[in-house]
Amino acid sequence: MRKPDPAVEWIRVAEEDYQGALDLARRRKDPLPNAVCFHCQQCVEKYLKAIMARHGIEPPRIHSLLNLNKSCVSIDSSFLLIADLLERLDPYSVETRYPGHPLELEDAREALDAMKQARQFIRAKLGLGK
After folding, report:
1. Number of domains the chain is built from
2. Domain with 56 in it: what CATH number?
3. Is 2 contained in some domain?
């Protein structure tokens, strides 16, 4: 019997954040850039954890994309190619959840762009389509 792929659940929850970010970004009334940026960061965080899980590494309970990417780089050095995207998204794991850091629509657009690029790269590494 084939062993279940531990990455599957990480991919599922990453896609929930992906859809959440897209749905929130499409709102015309009452846009929520903080929520969009948060879900963009969460999507990529969970995809990085899917890579780790696929390679038998228990993903740590941390939110830093830069630290998670270090583990992914140890698996495949080409993950260095997305470091700049991760750096743009990394602050949104915390600063979006607390008052005093209101984000603008442009921040949300940039986060969506970074998320889409990182997601496409990681999905390709997982052998998944766009």
Report:
1. 1
2. 1.20.120.330
3. no
Cα 44 from Cα 31, distance rounded (Å): 21
Q: d(Cα 22, Cα 108) in Å, to the nearest integer?
A: 10
Buried b (16+ CB within 10 A) or exposed e, 37-47: bbbbbbbbbbb
- pLDDT per residue, tens digit, the chain (130 aa), is 677 888 999 999 999 999 999 999 998 888 899 999 999 999 999 999 999 999 999 999 999 999 999 999 999 999 999 999 999 999 999 888 888 889 999 999 999 999 999 999 999 999 998 7
Q: Which of 96, 101, 124, 81 is nearest to 40 (CA)?
A: 96
